[in-house]
Amino acid sequence: MSRVCSLSVMDSIANPDITFNEEGVSNYYDEYLQRSRLRLFNNPSEAYKLNDLVEKIKESGKGKEYDCIIGISGGVDSTYVAYKAKELGLRPLAIHFDNGWNSELAVKNIEKTLNKLEIDLFTYVIDWEEFRSLQLAFLKASTPDGEIPTDHAIFALFFKIANEKGIKYIINGNNFETESVMPLTWSYGHIDWRYIKNINQRFGTSRLKAYPTITPLKYGYYTFVKGIRIVSILNYMHYNKNQAMELLKTKLDWKYYGGKHYESIYTRFYQGYILPHKFKIDKRKAHISSLIFAGQMTREQGLEELKKPIYPEALFEEDKLFVLKKLGLTEDEFNSILALPNKTFKDYPNQYAFLTKLRNALNTLRGKGLAYS
Question: Is the entire prediction scored with pTM above 0.85?
Answer without folding.
Answer: yes
